[in-house]
Amino acid sequence: MPVGIVTDSTAYMPESVVTELGIEVVQLQVISNGIAFNEVDGITVDQVALALRANKPVTTSRPNPELFIAAYQRLISNGADAIVSAHLSSELSGTYESALLASRSVSCPIAVIDSRGIAMMLGFAVQAGAHLAKSGGDFAEVGDLVKRKCLGSSILFYVDSLEFLERGGRINAVQARMGTALNMKPLLHMLNGKVEQRELVRTREKALNRMIDLVCAAARIKSEIAVHHVAAASAAHDLAQQLQNRTGLKDISVSPVGAVVGTHVGPGALAIVVSPQV
Fold this sequence. Notes:
Layout: E1 4-8, H1 15-21, E2 24-26, E3 29-32, E4 35-38, H2 45-53, E5 58-61, H3 65-77, E6 83-87, H4 95-103, E7 110-114, H5 120-134, H6 139-152, E8 154-158, H7 163-167, H8 173-181, E9 185-191, E10 194-201, H9 204-218, E11 223-229, H10 233-247, E12 253-256, H11 259-265, E13 270-276
Parallel strand pairs: 1-2, 1-6, 6-7, 11-12
Antiparallel strand pairs: 3-4, 3-5, 8-9, 8-13, 9-10, 11-13
Helix pairs in contact: 2-11, 3-4, 5-6, 9-10
């Protein structure tokens, strides 16, 4: 029987892909004004952006283990005899720990993978694993592919302000104040599962051009690239077009991140994910 695939809502994969490949997606929550909303069908990233601009309190919350148990049981009921469950970095959320705890309550082999990443760093890996599972890949093969894709992927992102990352505890106050005091625009990346500052650039235009240079240096002929944004669709499509022109890659997807990541990076954020085809 095919290997079942589970991930969480921060993978930000197209719904059509999720449905086609039979991937179970467990939702994180966003808490706005004291009310909890599911990330996918409860609150939009645009609503989060409006709340953040109005200085309203917005936080995020991991799924409880019962949601993972239910997802695992659905896959088992549909014939899966093993499951690969891959999730956003454990340095950013307790989601991985919830999935791990849930896996111990299910009578089925489950590999719970800490992607050490987020967004399509995770999404590309999950899609690759689901395709392999659908074509007959076994439990070990699928888990190994997902791990290798996660390990080989990178994300680079630009934020208009470090304020929101500081609010959510993803960077420290010293980092945030330094960037603000120097009136510099930050480029950030994931390093060892954490959000770290990579560079400070003098203007927004220079920051975006630098992003493109760095991504083009990292991309290869068989790389996959995705562009994400928070309430910045026009800028994201422009980035994608420039990347297509520079790399020759035609299938560069553009999509908003969801409400969880939007809460931490704030309006105007842009991100580029590069994932090797392994």
